[in-house]
């Protein structure tokens, strides 16, 4: 497996993102483009940091590079230029991005920087004055302009080397599908809207065409992502679009229902708790999309939620969860929370603990508040001391781990359909509908089995842990 120092053509473990993006439990590194590079074309190395949204941006850049005839190389010294797609959400991510740029400069010397941290070009140039160009997030044209300037494209582009589904960094059997960019909310702990702008939804027909190509190329699971997936279509005023001659409304439910017609799992991520999300639950109960909802809730105390500029009625959230579970008993709920938000009192933290005890969510990420430069919340009074944040984080995770253990133990004896991720000599790693790749648990199937990544199989659960399940195949 590649590491950053020996392979720039890769995706590093996502940096924890308190807004939406939980950390990877098992760092997933590059699946470099396996198409053999021709001897002649200009060679580019690529380092991709950050969350799945940044991964999709990287895939778009890589796709365009290959479409224009550039070769993607898996080593710094084989590259004539290195592109670093950065993350800039929290201070740790900024440091990691600056370090990656420094490493690429030291190893190669010719570096173009893009991504979220690219919005802070002054900071990058102050740390690394030798970078050739800095572009902001989601700016494919600016990245390509910088590449053309520094390393002109070959005269005859190798268009036939580019697969129709584009170049992807995820394994062949699952893919992220970005449906919109930017966000209209102004959560006070988050600077994503200032980095990526307001909501811009992709045309529905384009999304569905991309999804269909992915499935034709072997994708068995589509992970729908955006900064705010549930806002899909708002900026388009839900206008009609066409796919295969069918008129369709550009809204979340139509998107989900139509994706559900494809022969693949469809998993919804980063869903803001709007009321219309209720309409997804029947689609889950009918098996159109996976009964899995990734909904960042952030806190359980009303005053803290208001200070975050988030929807504030925790008891209404609990009522909704109950309604959803009675309509779709298989529903798996994932969420993320922040502890130690400025001004969070001991009583408000207890209120958060009460909330997670009552909500009994299946998958939970929790982050200590990180004062991201530029976030409005940094101006709030009464910052919580670091050691208090860490102590609250530990208490939160202890309670949630027990909830997770209890819920997983209830699955022993159940029959599940799982999707195979990895096949090793002595075990198979798979995932159930309740496990999103990289962030949730897995289903471990001990033994040697003749299976391939991307296979669906039936198993019976034999054991459980804090996050993972163990199972054996069902022989029908
Ligand atoms: S909803 Fe928008 S502003 Fe709020 S955390 Fe998510 S990306 Fe940031």
UniProtKB/TrEMBL annotation:
CDD domains assigned: Radical_SAM
Cofactor note: Binds 2 [4Fe-4S] clusters. One cluster is coordinated with 3 cysteines and an exchangeable S-adenosyl-L-methionine.
Reaction it catalyzes: L-aspartate(89)-[ribosomal protein uS12]-hydrogen + (sulfur carrier)-SH + AH2 + 2 S-adenosyl-L-methionine = 3-methylsulfanyl-L-aspartate(89)-[ribosomal protein uS12]-hydrogen + (sulfur carrier)-H + 5'-deoxyadenosine + L-methionine + A + S-adenosyl-L-homocysteine + 2 H(+)
Domain spans labelled TRAM: 409-475
E.C. no: 2.8.4.4
SMART domains, alphabetized: Elp3
GO molecular function list: 4 iron, 4 sulfur cluster binding; aspartic acid methylthiotransferase activity; metal ion binding; protein methylthiotransferase activity
Domain of life assignment: Bacteria
Record keywords, A-Z: 4Fe-4S, Cytoplasm, Iron, Iron-sulfur, Metal-binding, Ribonucleoprotein, Ribosomal protein, S-adenosyl-L-methionine, Transferase
UniProt record, GO biological process: tRNA modification
Domain MTTase N-terminal: 42-152
Cofactor: [4Fe-4S] cluster
Residues the record lists as binding [4Fe-4S] cluster 1: 51, 87, 116
Sequence positions that bind [4Fe-4S] cluster 2: 183, 187, 190
PROSITE patterns, alphabetized: MTTASE_N, MTTASE_RADICAL, RADICAL_SAM, TRAM
SUPFAM superfamilies in alphabetical order: Radical SAM enzymes (SSF102114)
Compartments where found: Cytoplasm
Biased composition (Pro residues): 15-25
Principal localisation: cytoplasm
UniProt-listed Pfam families: Radical_SAM, TRAM_2, UPF0004
HAMAP family recorded: MTTase_RimO (MF_01865)
Family, per entry: Belongs to the methylthiotransferase family. RimO subfamily.
PANTHER family linked to this entry: RIBOSOMAL PROTEIN S12 METHYLTHIOTRANSFERASE RIMO (PTHR43837), RIBOSOMAL PROTEIN US12 METHYLTHIOTRANSFERASE RIMO (PTHR43837:SF1)
Protein name in the entry: Ribosomal protein uS12 methylthiotransferase RimO
Taxonomic classification: Bacteria, Pseudomonadati, Pseudomonadota, Gammaproteobacteria, Chromatiales
Gene that encodes it: rimO
């Amino acid at each position: 497996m590649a590491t950053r120092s020996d392979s720039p053509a890769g995706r590093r473990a996502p940096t924890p993102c308190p807004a939406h993006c939980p950390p990877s439990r098992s760092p997933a590194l590059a699946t470099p483009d396996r198409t053999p590079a021709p001897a002649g074309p200009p060679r580019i190395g690529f380092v991709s940091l950050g969350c799945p949204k940044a991964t999709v941006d990287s895939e778009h850049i890589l796709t365009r590079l290959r479409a224009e005839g550039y070769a993607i190389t898996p080593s710094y010294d084989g590259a004539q230029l290195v592109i670093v797609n950065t993350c800039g959400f929290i201070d740790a991510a900024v440091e990691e991005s600056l370090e990656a740029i420094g490493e690429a400069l030291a190893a190669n010397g010719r570096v173009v920087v893009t991504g979220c941290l690219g919005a802070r070009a002054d900071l990058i140039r102050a740390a690394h004055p030798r970078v050739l160009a800095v572009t902001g997030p989601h700016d494919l044209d600016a990245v390509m302009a910088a590449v053309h300037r520094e390393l002109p494209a070959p005269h005859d582009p190798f268009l036939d080397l580019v697969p129709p589904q584009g170049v992807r960094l995820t394994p062949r059997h699952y893919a992220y599908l970005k449906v919109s960019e930017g966000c209209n909310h102004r959560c006070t702990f988050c600077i994503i809207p200032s980095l990526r702008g307001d909501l811009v939804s992709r045309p529905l027909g384009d999304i569905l065409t991309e999804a269909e190509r992915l499935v034709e190329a072997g994708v068995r699971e589509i992970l729908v992502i955006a900064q705010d997936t549930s806002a899909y279509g708002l900026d388009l005023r839900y206008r009609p679009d066409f796919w295969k001659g069918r008129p369709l409304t550009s809204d979340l439910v139509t998107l989900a229902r139509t994706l559900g017609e494809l022969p693949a799992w469809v998993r919804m991520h980063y869903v803001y708790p709007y009321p219309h999300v209720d309409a997804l639950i029947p689609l889950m109960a009918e098996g159109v999309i996976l009964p899995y909802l990734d909904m960042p809730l952030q806190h359980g105390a009303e005053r803290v939620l208001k200070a975050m500029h988030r929807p504030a009625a925790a008891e209404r959230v609990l009522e909704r969860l109950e309604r959803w579970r009675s309509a779709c008993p298989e529903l798996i709920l994932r969420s993320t929370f922040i502890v130690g938000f400025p001004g969070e009192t001991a009583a408000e933290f207890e209120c958060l603990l009460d909330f997670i005890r009552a909500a009994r969510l299946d998958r939970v990420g929790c982050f200590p508040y990180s004062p991201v430069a530029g976030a409005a919340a940094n101006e709030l009074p009464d910052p919580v001391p670091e050691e208090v944040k860490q102590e609250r984080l530990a208490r939160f995770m202890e309670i949630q781990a027990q909830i997770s253990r209890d819920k997983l133990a209830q699955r022993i004896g159940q029959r599940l359909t799982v999707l195979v991720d990895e096949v090793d000599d002595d075990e198979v790693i798979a995932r159930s509908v309740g496990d999103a790749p990289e962030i949730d648990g897995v289903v471990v199937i001990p033994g040697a089995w003749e299976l391939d990544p991307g296979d669906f199989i039936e198993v019976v659960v034999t054991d459980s842990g804090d996050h993972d399940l163990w199972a054996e195949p069902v022989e029908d």
